[in-house]
Design goal:
This protein is an all-alpha fold. The protein has one domain (6-98, 115-173). 84% of the residues lie in helices and 0% in strands. It contains eight helices and no strands. Residues 185-217 are annotated as: Disordered. Residues 129-177 form a coiled coil. Keywords: Coiled coil. InterPro entries: CCDC148/CCDC112.
Length: 217
């Protein structure tokens, strides 16, 4: 088994990737509100109700599912951090084990009388150092992949946020334009009705002013 339990690292990387980032595809502001309510409320039910009240587009059921996701995220993240700590420890071990094995023996003089025993020790420690170095190199590569994935996810999230913002602005513009057109039509209709009433009043006034002998002829 690898000294760093690379499966823990990969599990977290894969989880973040399939979750569309560290917020499970949620907007950063929405996820931050979720975390804030999570600290404030006693249970997930209260979190869901309060968040849904502020953000009606996120249902209570979606919040509960997000809580299940977040619990899994924290578990994998802790294992990931533990792998990091082991990696740092291994780096220190490499520095410690770099000195010749003979110099580390309690009684170096025994090396001559029992060389086969210490040769096995040297061979074992050499293998361990090599294994640790290989694990560190593998870890570095995996970390680079993880950073690249995170960068891609961040770029995609920013792109989606800009598209959402652009769509929101467009909706506001269209709504404003529709309201403007409605007001214009309403004013035109009111003016038309006013003109019609004025014409009718003029006709009635003219009829009243016309002499009776002319209307009877």
């Amino acid at each position: 088994m690898s000294f760093m339990k690379k499966q823990d690292v990969k599990a977290f990387m894969d989880f973040v990737k399939t979750s569309n980032g560290h917020e499970n595809g949620w907007a950063i502001s929405d996820h931050q509100l979720f975390l804030k309510l999570r600290k404030k409320c006693k249970n997930v039910g209260d979190v869901a109700l309060n968040l849904n009240e502020v953000l009606p587009d996120i249902s209570v059921d979606e919040v509960k599912k997000h809580e299940i996701w977040y619990a899994r995220y924290l578990n994998l993240k802790e294992k990931h951090h533990e792998a990091l700590r082991r990696w740092q420890k291994m780096k220190e071990e490499i520095k410690t084990n770099e000195s010749p094995v003979v110099d580390q023996l309690e009684n170096p003089g025994e090396f001559k009388t029992n060389s086969s025993k210490y040769l096995k020790i040297i061979e074992k420690r050499t293998f361990e150092r090599k294994k640790i170095k290989e694990d560190i190199e593998s870890w570095k590569k995996e970390r680079e992949i993880m950073e690249k994935i995170q960068m891609q996810l961040k770029e995609e999230k920013n792109r989606q946020a800009k598209l959402k913002e652009k769509k929101t602005e467009e909706m506001k513009r269209l709504k404003s334009e529709m309201v403007k057109q409605w007001k214009t039509k309403k004013l035109a209709s009111e003016q038309e009705q006013k003109n019609t009433v004025e014409v009718q009043n003029d006709i009635e006034h003219n009829i009243k002013q016309t002499p009776s002998w002319r209307t009877n002829s």
